[in-house]
TrEMBL record:
It is found in: Cell membrane. This is Bis(5'-adenosyl)-triphosphatase ENPP4. Keywords: Blood coagulation, Cell membrane, Disulfide bond, Glycoprotein, Hemostasis, Hydrolase, Membrane, Metal-binding, Signal, Transmembrane, Transmembrane helix, Zinc. It comes from Otolemur garnettii. The chain crosses the membrane at residues 403-423.
Length: 449
């Protein structure tokens, strides 16, 4: 009787869990370069990866800066499509400016629909956010049910406590939540990614925060049923006071306005565009200068009015300045094909495999994967869901090397079977050797003598 009660109770628990909507927590540690995982000891993060999946490199979108890439993660769109094209922007029609301290106007965000808005509008679901860029803005007249106004002075612990409280106790239930932290980006700028001593200390602190996150989720009973993605927006490149491009040596500041700064600078000419372009074009051998219409197609960075007429792109590790030295020893924003600009992605939960590693995905691929996990219909996007199928337990996936191996193996088996069939047929159809007829003693005499 006791056994019957236990089995019945277990069945009810499983049935109830099966009816619960899936939950997803998206976490970003700003500026977490992919190869930090190989270059530093990160025991808590490595334990998280062992029990889940790891994408070793995430190719982010150009420009590789904070606001644009965080919005690409949650919309699946290139910057020219979602409209957050830089950390600092200017709209020539409305004369509006956007910056990290002036980012609350929905005008800048309404060109796309982030996943927290889509999730929020579902029946019997809600979203929550702890300072992910854009979550404290009323996008399409919608904010998450629970969110925090951005302030860098708020501790990670307070952010984590709020998020876990909302995930654990809310009605309607929070099924999608985001959590953002400024490190190791801030320290990467200050020290540079090659300062092993300082970055080791900072990354140890970040790893400790990941440990706190996992411990908190386990303590609240969220760990087994919650899907958690840990990722970042970009990497970091080492800079130097010796690698500086001074625009004041090339052209007067009265000729243009610099809308966004190094290492990808947006230039709004005050005089003839061609004159400004020609002077900047020959300014420095470590800086590429593009008219808007000539920006390489691989950047997907042309078709938006917020992209300025002239774009300057410094080579990796070089800094664009205006008649002054740069205080940054690390920076990002460079060409998104550079390995130093790539972040990583790790994930754990019922939606993900355990102990699986994948080489690379695009940052825009994260959005359709998250929509699939949550059962949301994605808005049109630039991501490819098939790129992330191998990470998910409910998807049949086979990668290229495995596919080639299977095809070669099948061909070998078919070849062997064909050879065996041919050999058997040859044996059956071969002429029998001549043998003399043996006459018995009681046979009649032959007719011919």
């Amino acid at each position: 009787m006791k056994l019957l009660v236990i089995l019945l109770f277990s069945g009810l628990v499983i049935a109830c869990r099966g009816n619960l909507p899936p939950k997803l927590l998206l976490v970003s540690f700003d500026g977490f370069r992919a190869d930090y995982l190989k270059n530093y000891e990160l025991p808590h993060l490595q334990n998280f990866i062992k029990e889940g999946v790891l994408v070793e490199h995430v190719k982010n979108v150009f420009i590789t800066k904070t606001f644009p890439n965080h919005y690409s993660i949650v919309t699946g769109l290139y910057e020219e499509s979602h409209g957050i094209v830089a950390n600092s922007m200017y709209d020539t029609v409305t004369k509006k400016y956007f910056s990290d301290s002036n980012d609350k106007d929905p005008f800048w965000w309404n060109e796309a629909v982030p996943i927290w808005v889509t999730n929020q509008l579902q029946e019997n679901r809600s979203s929550a956010a702890a300072m992910w860029p854009g979550t404290d803005v009323s996008i399409h007249n919608t904010t998450p049910s629970y969110f925090m106004n951005y302030s860098s002075s708020v501790s990670f612990e307070e952010r984590l406590n709020n998020i876990t409280m909302w995930l654990n106790n809310s009605s309607p239930p929070v099924t999608f939540a985001t959590l953002y932290w400024e490190e190791p980006d801030a320290s990467g700028h200050k020290y540079g990614p090659e300062d092993n001593e300082n970055m080791r200390r900072v990354l140890k602190e970040v790893d400790g925060l990941i440990g706190n996150l996992v411990q908190k989720l386990k303590m609240l009973g969220l760990w087994e049923d919650l899907n958690v993605i840990i990722t970042s927006d970009h990497g970091m490149a080492q800079c130097s006071q010796d690698r500086v491009i001074n625009l004041d040596y090339c052209i007067s500041e009265s000729s243009y306005t610099l809308i966004d700064l190094s290492p990808v600078a947006a230039v709004l000419p005050k005089i003839n565009r061609t004159v400004v372009y020609d002077k900047m074009k020959t300014c420095h051998p470590h800086m590429n200068v593009y008219l808007k219409e000539d920006i390489p197609n691989r950047f997907y960075y042309q078709h938006n009015d917020r992209i300025q007429p002239i774009i300057l792109v410094a080579d990796e590790g070089w800094t664009i300045v205006l008649n002054k030295s740069s205080q940054k020893l690390g920076d990002h924003g460079y060409d998104n094909s550079l390995q130093s600009m790539h972040p990583f992605l790790a994930a754990h939960g019922p939606a993900f495999h355990k102990g699986y590693k994948h080489s690379t995905i695009n940052i825009v691929d994260i959005y359709p994967m998250m929509c699939h996990i949550l059962g949301l219909k994605p808005h049109p996007n630039n991501g490819t869901f098939s790129h992330t199928k191998c990470l998910l337990v409910d998807q049949w996936c086979i990668n290229l090397p495995e596919a080639i191996g299977i095809v070669i193996g099948a061909l070998m088996v078919l070849t062997m079977l064909t050879c065996l069939i041919i050999i058997m047929q040859n044996r059956l159809s071969a002429p029998r050797p001549f043998s003399r007829l043996q006459l018995q003693d009681d046979d009649d005499d032959p007719l011919i003598e």
